[in-house]
Amino acid sequence: MSASTVSPTRPQTSPQVLRHSTAFAWGSPATYLIAVVLIAACMGPVLYIVLGGFRTNSQITEDPSGLPSPWVTTNYTDVLASSEFWVAMVNSTISALATTVGTVVLGVMASFVIARYDFVGKGAMYSLFAAGLMFPMTVAITPLYLMVRMLGLTNSLMGIILPQIAFALPVTIIILVPFLRAIPQELEEAASIDGASRLGFFWRMVVPLSMPGVITVGILAFINAWNNYMLPLFILSDPATFTLPLGVANFASQYSVDTARVLAFTSLSMIPALLFFTLFEKRIVGGLTGAIKG
Amino acid sequence: MSDSQVMAPEGPSAAGGGSTPPPAAQPAAEPSRRGADWRKRAEITLLTGPAILVFLTFVIVPVVMAAYYGFFRWKGFGPPTDFAGLQNYVSILTDPTFQDAVRHNFIIVVLSLVIQGPVAILFALLMNQKIRGRSVIRMLIFVPYVISEVIVGTGWALMMSDTGAVNTVLAKIGLENLQQSWLADPNIAMGTLMLILTWKYVGFAVILMLAGLQSIPEELYEAAAIDGASFWQQQFRITLPLLGPTIRIWAFLSMIGALQLFDLVNIIWGQYVAATAGTSTMATYMYLNGHLAGNYGFGSAVAVVLFMISLVVALFYQRFVLRRDTEGAVTGNSGRKRRKK
C-alpha cells in the first residue's frame, strides 16, 4: 500500500522490471489458452458491434451472428455524413475538455493552499472536499437537476460542465495534496530568497513539478466526463446539446429498426475513448490504481 | 467510472485528524507583518474561492436541499409548501416496487463480489505469469471498462435480444434448447445483467489485483518453493493473505458501485421494463418515480434513502472489514500515513 505520491511513477518503472523477467520465458500452453479465451470474451462483444456496422439489416435479420458478406460501408458513411453524430461529438469534446481544464485549474489551486499554507480551518477545508466522496452523483442527481434548473443552465453544456467539475474535485484534491506537500520546503525557501513571491513559486515551481499528478487527475476527469450518461440525461433534453452517450441512446431508440446503422453509430462513438485509452493506457491504469490504493 | 468517485466515507474524520496545522507556530513566526498577513489571506481566498464555490453550489447545497425537499409533496415549481412530514418516506419504504429494487441491489452487490472477485484473482494470477504479450493482454481486458456504459448497454441489448446473436449462435452449434428470452424472462434477466456487469467491470478488478500482486516480494515464493510448497499452496498461503488489503478495497468499491447502479439497467431495460424483468434498482426507481413523474419531493426522499443505505453499508464495512487495513488508506491521506511509518 504505497502512498499516492508514488503511484504516478509506478507505471513508468514497472514495465522495465517486467521486460527483464519475461525476456526469454514462454510459460505453459495452458496459460496461453486461458489468455486467448479471456481476450476473446473481452473483445467479442466489441467486434460484434464493429462488424455489425459493416452489414446490412437483412444480413443481420437472417443471421444475427454472422460475418459481413458482402461488406458494406454505407452505414458508416451515412453516420459520418449525419449532423447528429458530429453535433454529439463536438458537444462531448467541449464538455470533456472544459471539465478537465476546470477540474485541473480549480483543483491545483485549492490543493496548493491546503498543502502549503498554514491557516485556521485548513483541516476543515480538506474535510469538506473529502466529504464529497460520500456523495456520488447518483445520490445528488435529483436535487442537482433542480439546482441547475434554478440557475437556468438546463439544455446548456455549462449545466453539465460545472457539476462535473464539482464532483471531480474531491478525488482531484485528495490525489494532488500529498503530491504538492511532497515538494521540499527548501525549494520554496530558495525561491523566496531569489525574490519569488508565494504565487511566483506556485507558477514557476509547483505547477511544473506536480505535472505527473495533474495528468493523472486530468485523465480521470476527462474519462468520467466523456462517459457520463446520468447527468446529461437529467440536464439535457434538446438534441442540439446532446453528448455522445445521449446521442447513442437517442439514436438507438430512434432507429431501433435500423440495427446496422445503430451499430455503426455505436462503434464510431467508441473510437475516441479507445484512442484516448491507447494513448494514455499506462497513466490511466496507474492513476486508477493509485487513486484507489492511495 | 462513477465508482472511482465513491471511496471514502471515513474521509472527514481521518482527514480532519490528519491535516490540522500546528496552530501556534504561524502567529508567533510573523507577529507584526500585517501586510504579509493580508496578502496571505487574499491569496488563500483567490486560490480556493472558485473551487469552494463550485463545490458548495453543485455538491453540498443540492444534498442539503434533498434532505429538505424530502419532507414535501412538491412538483418542482415554486417553493415547496405542501409539507408532508415523513409521508414520502413511509410511501417509499412500504412500496413493494421499491422493496424489490432494494432486493435487486443487494443481490447485485453479493453476486458481484462472489463472481467478479474469484474471476479477477484468477485472471490476475494468470496475467502475473511470465508470458509473452502480457502488456497487450492487459490492455485488451481493460477495454470493456473504458467503453461507456451506453455503448456496452446498446451492444449487449442487441446481442441478447430474442432474435439476437446469442440465440442464433446457440442454434448454430445445436443447442436450441438453451435459447432463452435473456432480457425479458424475470428468472434469467438478473443473470444476464450479472454477465454484462462482470464483462464490463472485471477488467478493473484485474488491474487492481495485478497492482496488488506486483507489490508481493518475489523472495517469498522462492523461499516457499525451496520448502516444497506447490503452486496452489503458494497462492493460498502467500498470495491471498498478502492480497487481502487490495481485495477488501476492491470489494468496497464494487459494493458502493452496485448500490448506485443506474446506467446499464436504464439503457438495456428502459424505465418501465426493468421492474417487470426483475432488474430495477434504487436509482432507476428514483429516476422513474421522481424525475420522470415530476414528483421532486418524492424523488429527493428516494435519494436520501439511497444515500442512507449506501452510508450504512459503507460504515459497517469500514467498521468490521476495512478497519484492519491501514487507516486512511482509501482517502490517500498520506501525511497521516507517513507519520505512522
Helix percent of chain B reads over 70%
How much helicity do the residues of chain A have? over 70%
Would you list the SSEs of chain B in sequence order as H and E? HHHEEHHHHHHHHHHHH
Low-confidence stretches of chain A: 1-24
Head-to-tail CA distance between termini of chain B? 32 Å
- The whole-angstrom Rg of chain A is 23 Å
Q: Which class of secondary structure composition applies to the elements of chain B? A: mainly alpha
Q: Could you tell me the CATH topology label of one domain in chain B.
A: MetI-like fold
Indicate the mean pLDDT of chain A. 78
Which CATH top level class of one domain in chain B fits? Mainly Alpha
SSE series of chain A? HHHHHHHHHHHHHH
The number of helices of chain B is 15
Number of strands of chain A: 0
Largest sheet of chain A: none
Q: What average pLDDT do the residues of chain B reach?
A: 77
Percent strand of chain A equals: under 5%
Q: Write out the strand line-up for the largest beta sheet of chain B, numbering strands in chain order.
A: 1-2
Chain pair with largest interface: A-B, 123 and 128 residues
| Poorly predicted parts of chain B | 1-30, 328-341
CATH class of chain A: Mainly Alpha
Kindly give the count of domains of chain A. 1
Structure notes:
The complex is a heterodimer of chains A (294) and B (341). Helices cover 76% and strands 0% of the residues of chain A. Chain A is built from 14 helices and no strands. Chain A has helices spanning 10-22, 29-52, 57-62, 74-81, 83-116, 122-131, 137-150, 158-181, 185-193, 198-209, 211-227, 230-235, 244-254, 259-293. In chain A, helix 2 (29-52) packs across helix 14, helix 8 (158-181) runs antiparallel to helix 11 (211-227) and helix 13 runs antiparallel to helix 14. The longest helix of chain A is centred in the C-terminal third of the chain and has 35 residues, at 259-293. Chain A starts with 9 loop residues before the first helix and ends with a helix. The model of chain A is unreliable at 1-24 (pLDDT under 50). Chain B is an all-alpha fold and 341 residues long. Chain B is built from 15 helices and two strands. Chain B has a two-stranded antiparallel sheet with strand order 1-2. Chains A and B meet through helix 1, helix 2, helix 5, helix 6 and helix 7 of A and helix 1, helix 3, helix 5, helix 6 and helix 7 of B. Chain B: It is found in: Cell membrane.
